[in-house]
Amino acid sequence: TQLLEQSPQFLSIQEGENLTVYCNSSSVFSSLQWYRQEPGEGPVLLVTVVTGGEVKKLKRLTFQFGDARKDSSLHITAAQPGDTGLYLCAGSLNFGNEKLTFGTGTRLTIIP
Amino acid sequence: EAQVTQNPRYLITVTGKKLTVTCSQNMNHEYMSWYRQDPGLGLRQIYYSMNVEVTDKGDVPEGYKVSRKEKRNFPLILESPSPNQTSLYFCASSFRGYNEQFFGPGTRLTVL
């Protein structure tokens, strides 16, 4: 059983459209990270959210941590082909816990 | 350049033939870990190390061994590989386990 479930698993949309991907859990996380992975490479960190209800923006990407720190979302505005990739969320369960648990991933394809 | 290196990048082997995948980081990170990535399952942690001579099992440790004799190196050993260990493997390092993970480029392993 995966601690972190991401949805959708696959998403293919046209350039210029908006989209949201979700990362859900029944557990409370002290912090949550979002990574993007491109083919042939390792994941690269996009953002870390720590406080319940926190919203962070990275250009056209908006990340939100749920109030109860059990879920997170990533919203992309006006998607571009460069946004194509595998998006992974990863959470740390307790403050001081060294273990990072990764979600199942959302594979995003932006069609020009 | 700050980086995590893995070798080899690609490996095809046969069942039962011992192999080692090397991992090295030049960022003086204390925490290092190994993950395997399989379709639909995201990244699953195999082993991690919080410091030299300190290693512990992750979520899927069966069939793998690790060692941490030096801070910069964290090799992954498959004593008797089996076909179910065919996967994409990533080494990662960070200051602490819940901090940003820096990933290597990955090793694609096929066990026939």
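Chain B touches chain A at residues 4, 31, 35, 40-45, 48, 50, 58, 90, 92, 96-98, 100-101, 103-106 (CB under 8 Å).
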